[in-house]
Amino acid sequence: MPNEVVIITQARMTSTRLPGKILMRAGERTLLETHLDRLADVGVPVIVATTTNLSDGPVVELCAALDVPVFRGSENDVLERYQRAARAHEARHVIRVTSDCPLICPDVICAGLDVYLGLKSESIYLSNGERRTYPRGMDFEIFSRRSLDFAAEHARLPSEREHVTGCIRTSMPDIRHEHCTDEEDLSDWRITVDTVDDFKLAKLLIEDHHAAEMDYPGLKALLKAHPELMKINSHIQQKPI
């Protein structure tokens, strides 16, 4: 059955900095469960795109228990994995997120999706990362299946295959960039999980402050009220693309 919009989140156990992080527990759930629960509030189908590695068997088992669809593909050619997942679910448009963002805010994604759908074009690339005002960990990209197919056909560089949207953003001739920004620049905040200290922060936010139940304004208010929390991982440098 065709889907107008799907969310595809990439997930694997072989993170270089913090292996197995998505199945680490904060509160009563794994980070992946928290991530998927928040994505469900966007109101469109969610697909987990993982790898064919044996190490990702536990990801598949968890998703089966949660009744979340899974697509398994190449570990390194993430672009192909996305294209095949989108094709398998007959998606016209794709929201791309990553599973290292357990506290990603559905209200932020919904606002971006409303803008994207209102533009009524298959030549739009919309994100909140190119002109970053949101913290790391709130990242999403929205693009059409047409754009994804173009990238899968034309991307040649290993970096373009690994990071999915590079060819769309730089090489698609008729692509139009749209940007979601917030009125406050909080781009130096880090609410993604890539290191032990990132996990310490996420665990505190979830267990002690009930952040998994908050929308973006609530999360901002919490972190402004407790500036010491953001110091936990402020020294971490984002891995370059």
UniProtKB/TrEMBL annotation:
Pfam families: CTP_transf_3. GO terms for cellular component: cytosol. One of its GO terms (molecular function) is nucleotidyltransferase activity. Keywords: Nucleotidyltransferase, Transferase. The keyword Transferase applies. Gene3D superfamilies: Spore Coat Polysaccharide Biosynthesis Protein SpsA, Chain A. This is Acylneuraminate cytidylyltransferase. It comes from Nitrobacter hamburgensis (strain DSM 10229 / NCIMB 13809 / X14).
